[in-house]
Amino acid sequence: MLRRFLCTCNSGGASTVTVTASAKKKNVVFLGSPQVSASVLDKLILASHASHSIFKLAAVVTQPPSVRDRGRKNLMPSPVAQLALDKGFPQQLIFTPHRAGEENFLSNLKGVNPDLCITAAYGNILPQRFLDIPPCGTVNIHPSLLPLYRGAAPVQRALQDGVTETGVSLAYTIRALDAGPVIAYEKFQVDDSIKAPELLSILFDLGSGLLIRELPFILDGSAKVKALPQDDSNATLAPKLTSEESWLSFDQEAPVLHNKVRAFTGWPGTRAKIQVANSKTNGFDLLDIKVISTRVCHKGIQSRDKNEILFSGDALQIPCAGESWLEVTELQLPGKKVMRARDFWNGLRGQKLKLPSQLEILA
């Protein structure tokens, strides 16, 4: 269950986006790439088409087309580019530079006369030459309560740490990483079952609401006066996830492993090595599995073998450090689809499971 708390650094009342018939609409450029960015762009386009809107979408900037699906040879546009095309946005105003400092790109950006640039999971570093172009600045939707979790993976690292509160911030972009003054933020209390993709989507959805509400203050310049500087002494970092981190080590306690599974859902996922009894050799075969869904077991479990993996209800029960147990409810075998733990257990036909020793893993 998520609880919401909204804070805006502007002291005025509720904002409304209004424009007089003679007023000139401000030019806004949006930068983003993945699906969560596309959801922000969708709301921005909708707001720009409103009769009382004070801005128009002048350009969209996103990552270049890439091969996204295994087995495909054709290049695919980013989700942001695809949404812009689907909404009828002019293709010549969708820019896809490899780097935001390219001379041709900066020239094209200046050509659309942006008053404001908005970023949401764009994926490229913005040089000072870029930041100097829009007179109203560049603002970013960042899915954390800044200055906490600055960096590429704020949602994943927060879940990995097992936080009970996180949020989304709307902040000005400066050259230092996610260190600009904060315009507004929302707080959340998060339960221990939500996974990274779901939380990421929710936070960007709420961040887009913050953006739309604060746009009048950003475009008239008053947000710069009201925005609060971050306390760098409280800053924490959220580095990008790596595939090498995906292995689960059961010499850690179950809550730590459960938080990692939630955090790493999607990419890179979490993997583990277990052993399956082989009746032909009277030994055990090593098996790599991808752990999809877990929970922490809160009831006492008795086992004669400290390395034996048990099954109860709908879950594999794996012994962990500190006499804790991790319950795995969904998993995936190499080359197979995701399956329920019950189906996997039934397929074993009585074969025992256990955790391998470090020597057995290295053998």
Order of helices and strands: EEHEHEHEHEHEEHHHEEEEEEHEH
Using DSSP, what is the number of strands?
15
**Could you give the order of strands across the largest sheet?**
1-8-7-6-5-2-3-4
Strand content: 25-35%
What coarse outline follows from CA principal-axis ratios? elongated
Q: What is the straight-line distance between the termini?
A: 44 Å
Largest sheet: 8 strands, mixed
Please state the CA-atom Rg, rounded to the nearest Å: 24 Å
Query: How much helix is in the residues?
Result: 25-40%
Structural class: alpha+beta
Unreliable spans = 11-22
The number of helical segments is 10
Mean pLDDT: 92
Overview of this protein structure:
With 363 residues, the protein is of the alpha+beta class. It has ten helices and 15 strands. A hairpin with a 5-residue loop joins strand 13 and strand 14. The two termini are 44 Å apart. The model is unreliable at 11-22 (pLDDT under 50).
Salient structural properties:
single chain; 363 residues; alpha+beta; eight-stranded mixed beta sheet; six-stranded antiparallel β-barrel; 10 helices; Formyl_trans_C
What is this structure, in a nutshell?
The chain is α+β, with helices and mostly antiparallel strands.
Fold blueprint:
Elements: E1 3-8, E2 26-32, H1 35-48, E3 55-61, H2 79-86, E4 94-95, H3 103-111, E5 116-120, H4 128-131, E6 138-142, H5 154-160, E7 165-172, E8 182-189, H6 196-219, H7 222-226, H8 254-264, E9 270-278, E10 283-297, E11 308-312, E12 315-319, E13 325-332, E14 338-340, H9 341-348, E15 353-354, H10 358-362
Parallel strand pairs: 2-3, 2-5, 3-4, 5-6
Antiparallel strand pairs: 1-8, 6-7, 7-8, 9-10, 9-15, 10-13, 11-12, 11-15, 12-13, 13-14
